[in-house]
């Protein structure tokens, strides 16, 4: 049975949307979920079989001497997006794969939806005894036979929100995704509006390596599941997702999770990163870690959390933050770049000396903690002094519009751009709004509310206010 549609709005994402009290969705508290998940695991895992001398199914696999070799790399190698329509099971699947429930924000728990981007890492392993896809797991000890597994790779999931008002967040997440899993719930007709809108966002962002998960097959008959599968195939036909595998799953119970991990390990290769490039980090969060009343000489500098898009960052490096701090001078608002130094670097719970792209990282800096409070620097970029892309307060945009608005319940045609209309623009994990000024042939002038840093080759996604919500209508390049 399809779930009731959620209609709440979320602050900061839809400037013009009225704030409506959110209906609560019954989502189980984490502890209960974990306990359930655990019980489920115990039920599912067959008793370890008696060891008998079997021929190894893979010639190259060596059963490791104890202890099992550990992965050398502390940082995840790849960012896998988790995308799709609201409620289709993205966070549930991430938690199944990583053991982490990423919806921890109090609003998220209350509303039962994802609001912020969630990051969760895991290591994928291969059991030396199982055959084919059944050998793949995210457990160090094989849940099927109890063997010690061989670690393959550390990966990071970027869990995007599916709610229609949270496209800005999804778009900032897509800026760091290397590939993605598209979740489609089998108990609703496919495609739902954000199934389409997220797929378009990936296409614009050039994230073209995807796997489709057909989730919640426990809620439908085999016949309905097949009908839904045909809908998925018809929907992706002719798009970049046409040949993506479709894996039927019950994320809640981890059914077919081995097949998904196998597909990820086979299809989502670690991207080759050019570490010699100038680093660009997207700031997603910024905060002050000092307790009130900390002695002046013990105050720690501001902390910046986010993801490295390209290049490397090292401990001790001098860095610049752009667009920087908002300042008012003689009635004029400008943004001034900030300069600081990386005191230390962390990924997950571990300190590292240098960071490469993959997963989320945190930089401890010498910034005045007052500058970073309450995510004040979210949307900024970190890079080497003088090496970040230009800061734009206004620009001429060459728009490439879609034919149809796909994120609405009823698709509609994308009307031409009008002078005076307000756009939401996303680029490099940051979001701003802009007002359209003069319109020329194949371009329009846009004055931004907050400046953004972008190269001329960066695609800037354009969303238009339709009704109360911003809907993706295309992208543009700065002329
Ligand atoms: N029956 C069934 N329910 C599931 C399955 N996977 C997830 N659910 C339930 O579906 C609801 C939504 O799951 P979430 O993981 O929060 O969905 P989501 O896609 O992350 O939602 P948003 O982040 O808000 O877009 C929860 O109540 C889950 O327990 C499944 O395989 N079968
Ligand atoms: Mg979620
Ligand atoms: Zn095994």
Model description:
- This protein is α+β, with helices and mostly antiparallel strands.
- The protein contains eight helices and 24 strands.
- It folds into three domains: 78-267, Rossmann fold; 280-383, Translation factors (Elongation Factor Tu (Ef-tu), domain 3, Beta Barrel); 391-478, Translation factors (Elongation Factor Tu (Ef-tu), domain 3, Beta Barrel), CATH 2.40.30.
- The strands form five sheets. It has a seven-stranded mixed beta sheet with strand order 3-2-4-1-5-6-7, sandwiched between helices.
- Helix 4 runs parallel beside helix 5 (193-204).
- The relative contact order is 0.12.
- Bound molecules: guanosine-5'-triphosphate, magnesium ion and zinc ion.
- Magnesium ion is lined by residues 90-91, 103, 114, 159.
Brief sketch in words of this structure:
The chain is of the alpha+beta class. It is 17% helix and 34% strand.
Mean pLDDT: 87
The CATH homologous superfamily of the largest domain: P-loop containing nucleotide triphosphate hydrolases
Main sheet makeup: 7 strands, mixed
Proportion in helices:
10-25%
Q: How widely separated are the two ends?
A: 49 Å
Bound chemical compounds: guanosine-5'-triphosphate, magnesium ion, zinc ion
* The level-1 CATH class of the largest domain: Alpha Beta
Q: Helical region count? A: 8
Rough shape?
A: globular
User: Into how many domains do the coordinates divide?
Assistant: 3
**Integer-rounded radius of gyration:** 23 Å
Oligomer: single chain
Q: What is the number of beta strands?
A: 24
The CATH architecture of the largest domain can be given as: 3-Layer(aba) Sandwich
Q: Report the sheet-strand fraction.
A: 25-35%
Question: For the largest beta sheet, what order do the strands appear in spatially?
Answer: 3-2-4-1-5-6-7
């Amino acid at each position: 049975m399809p779930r009731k549609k959620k209609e709440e709005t979320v602050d900061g994402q839809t400037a013009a949307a009225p704030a409506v009290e959110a209906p609560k969705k019954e989502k189980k508290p984490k502890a209960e979920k974990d306990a359930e998940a655990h019980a489920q695991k115990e039920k599912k895992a067959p008793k370890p079989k008696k060891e008998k001398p079997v021929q190894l199914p893979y010639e190259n696999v060596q059963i490791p001497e104890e202890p099992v070799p550990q992965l050398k790399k502390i940082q995840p190698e790849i960012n896998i997006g988790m995308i799709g329509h609201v409620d289709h099971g993205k966070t549930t699947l991430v938690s199944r794969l990583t053991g982490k429930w990423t919806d921890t924000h109090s609003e998220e728990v209350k509303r039962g939806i994802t609001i912020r981007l969630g990051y969760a890492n895991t290591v994928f392993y291969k059991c030396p005894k199982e055959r084919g896809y059944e050998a793949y797991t995210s457990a160090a000890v094989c849940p099927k036979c109890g063997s010690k597994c061989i670690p393959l790779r550390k990966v990071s999931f970027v869990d995007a929100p599916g709610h229609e008002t949270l496209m800005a967040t999804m778009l900032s997440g897509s800026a760091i995704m290397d590939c993605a899993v598209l979740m489609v719930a089998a108990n609703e007709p496919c495609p739902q509006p954000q199934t389409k809108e997220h797929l378009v966002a990936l296409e614009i962002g050039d994230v073209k390596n995807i796997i489709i998960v057909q989730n919640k097959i426990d809620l439908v008959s085999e016949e309905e599941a097949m009908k839904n599968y045909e809908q998925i195939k018809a929907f992706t036909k002719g798009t970049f997702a046409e040949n993506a595998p479709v894996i039927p799953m019950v994320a809640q119970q981890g059914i077919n999770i081995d097949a998904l991990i196998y597909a990820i390990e086979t299809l989502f290769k670690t991207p080759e990163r050019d570490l010699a490039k100038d680093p660009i980090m997207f700031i997603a969060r910024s905060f002050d870690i000092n307790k009130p009343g900390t002695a002046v000489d013990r105050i720690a500098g501001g902390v910046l959390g986010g993801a490295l898009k390209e290049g490397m960052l090292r401990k001790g490096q001098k860095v610049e933050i752009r667009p920087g701090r908002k300042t008012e001078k003689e009635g004029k608002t400008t943004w001034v770049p900030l300069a600081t130094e990386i005191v230390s670097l962390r990924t997950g719970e571990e300190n590292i000396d240098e960071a490469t792209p993959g997963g989320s990282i945190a930089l401890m800096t010498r910034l005045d903690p007052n500058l970073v409070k309450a995510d004040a620097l979210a949307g900024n970029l970190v890079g080497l002094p003088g090496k970040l892309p230009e800061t734009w307060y206004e620009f001429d945009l060459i728009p490439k519009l879609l034919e149809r608005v796909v994120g609405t319940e009823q698709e509609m045609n994308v009307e031409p751009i009008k002078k005076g209309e307000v756009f939401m623009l996303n680029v490099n994990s940051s979001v701003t709004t802009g007002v359209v000024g003069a319109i020329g042939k194949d371009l329009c002038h846009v004055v931004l509310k907050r400046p953004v840093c972008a190269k001329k080759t960066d695609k800037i996604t354009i969303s238009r206010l339709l009704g109360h919500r911003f809907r993706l209508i295309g992208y543009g390049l700065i002329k």
